[in-house]
Amino acid sequence: MPILCYRNISPVCGITPEEFRAHLEWLAANGWHSISLDGIIDYIKGGAEPPQRSYALTFDDCYLDNWVHAAPILREYGVAAAFGCVTAYLHDGPRRPDASTPNVDLRELPVARDAWDRAIDRNDPTAFMNRAELRALVTEQGHRLFGHTHTHQACFRSNRPIQREPQEMHPGVRGIYLEMRGGMPMYPSGSAYAHNGYWPESNDPLEDKLVARTTSERIEFCLNEFTLCRERLEEVEGIPSRVMSWPWGEYDDVAIEAALLAGYDAALSMDSGANRPGTPRFALRRIRMQGGVTSKELNRKLQVASHPLLAGLFRKTYRRPRD
């Protein structure tokens, strides 16, 4: 069973609304229909096989453009999706207009390309969906939510400096240093959930000496992040939250153990390949969707993901759990 992974649907970044509509139109015309993540999880655990040409559709990060541009197109085609939320950026506010609102000017709404900088640097999470919009997706439009951790935190994977300025690093690095400034040493980064990593020795913003984190410290960090994310999502959705997704697609056995302890039943990776009985529940495989993917390319991706032999040949693993 293939799972499609989207992020942005926007005229200014990511996949355009026209491309997204073309994907859903092609899927409908060729007999594909969406099912829930729960249906896929139950299937890989040995439950009933979903109908042929079933797929699940997911969005990571819960950008506002998912509400503005994706949700109206999903309604148009009757497709159910699941949205992955970084719960540190949950916020209150009124529903904002979407692209189906008559005579609406959407140009002043914040866009996804600025979302992380606004949220981390300016404590402004408004480029992500708010609680009212998320609740509407669930209660009025039949979609679901899943966890994408509480802060989507990065860490330094190595203590060997690299020649990059803070503004060139992923915004998640800003959660490592208490204060980011030009000239600070930068290091290769990765997921704080999948690597013990290196962190500043002190809370002094002028101190940049790094120390290695222990595995026990990472377990405690992961368990807190995953549990807080699940509890906050359940407050929004009103039902148990079973699924999370790994930031940057990275995971290992420590992160999986913490996810189990936090009460999750499965996790979405960025590994490519087929989902079938026996697929690891905490490494569900997805098809990464990005701008420029034509209907012909979508067909090829689905054919590969739906065929066990081809999926094995083309499989890519971001971070394999240790034995």
How are the elements arranged and paired?
Layout: E1 3-6, H1 17-29, E2 33-34, H2 37-44, E3 54-60, H3 64-77, E4 82-85, H4 115-122, H5 131-139, E5 144-147, E6 154-156, E7 189-191, E8 198-200, E9 210-212, H6 215-237, E10 243-245, H7 253-261, E11 266-268, E12 287-288, H8 295-306, H9 308-314
Parallel strand pairs: 1-3, 1-12, 2-3, 3-4, 4-5, 10-11
Antiparallel strand pairs: 6-7, 8-9
Helix pairs in contact: 1-3, 6-7, 8-9
Characterise this structure.
- This protein has 323 residues and is of the alpha/beta class.
- The protein has a single domain (3-150, 216-314), classed as Glycoside hydrolase/deacetylase (TIM Barrel), CATH 3.20.20.
- Helix content is 32%, strand content 13%.
- The chain is built from 9 helices and 12 strands.
- The strands form 4 sheets. Strands 1, 2, 3, 4, 5 and 12 form a 6-stranded parallel beta sheet that branches. The protein has a two-stranded antiparallel sheet with strand order 6-7. It has a two-stranded antiparallel sheet with strand order 8-9.
- Helix 3 (64-77) links the parallel strand 3 and strand 4.
- It is globular, with a radius of gyration of 20 Å.
- The two termini are 25 Å apart.
- The model has no long low-confidence stretch (mean pLDDT 91).
